Amino acid sequence: MADHVDLVLGQWGAQRPDLDVTPMAVIGRLSRVSRLVGNELGKTFAAHGLDSASFDVLATLRRSGPEHRLTPAELMRAAMVTSGAITQRLDRLQARGLVTRTPSESDGRVVHVSLTEEGLALVDRTLPDHLATENRVLAGLSGADLGALAGLLRDLLESLGDTVPEELVPGRGEPAGRGFPGGGAGIPDGTPAEGSENEFCESPAEDYRAPSVGAEYAGHGRAGGPAGGRPKVVDEEMLARARELRAQGVPVAEIATRLTIRTGKNAGRPPSVASLYRALAE
């Protein structure tokens, strides 16, 4: 059995045998999975009179504590879109009576966006079907496979700087749906950090400024952006060894297999290739 990406890799292997197209095996499949899964989720949202963008806003408000309230700026950072895009979403949702926008009592320059009773009821009706769809599209993988995949994807996101401090994650370390890490989309108690991740994290619009999100949720300084700076898993000794091997012409992917993380939850494992590339690019 082969998939479309196997075909693409075979074609590149025949046309450009001088290139290592191994990354396409991962990136190509991530792209295709995202599109296929997005289509299935979209059908579920449409059955409830929503689209993915509208559900993003409603779901982000729903899990933002008992008041279900955020500012437009917080929603904008969560959705990684421009202020114009979030304004359009809020206009549509307010016109349907699903959200309200009210001035802050303490600062008239600030507006709060809140779920209405109708909006709360709608997102609560949609969420079980949304989770059922997610379970259906993942049904081809075992619980062990899902756990391994979730862990690998988390490692990839961490290597790209997409992290939050663990103390901000409610219930960290507790089981999460189907017995694999990150498997559930349950609604945590408590208020998330300002600018917390939305349900889908859309691609940034062209005029979106990524460094501001880096300061909000990636755990880096504003100047560094979401992918700036050396990953914390790569210490000075590892970096020196990596540079030595790199100077000898050893590929980065092979260098990663020769190194071992010494501290933290990934201790004893090799660093990811992406994190090593970032460290070497300092």
From TrEMBL:
It comes from Streptomyces zhihengii. SMART domains: HTH_MARR. Residues 23-158 form the HTH marR-type domain. The keyword Transcription applies. The keyword Transcription regulation applies. PROSITE patterns: HTH_MARR_2. The lineage of its organism: Bacteria, Bacillati, Actinomycetota, Actinomycetes, Kitasatosporales. Keywords: DNA-binding, Transcription, Transcription regulation. This is MarR family transcriptional regulator. SUPFAM superfamilies: Winged helix' DNA-binding domain. PANTHER family: TRANSCRIPTIONAL REGULATOR, MARR (PTHR42756), TRANSCRIPTIONAL REPRESSOR OF EMRAB OPERON (PTHR42756:SF1).
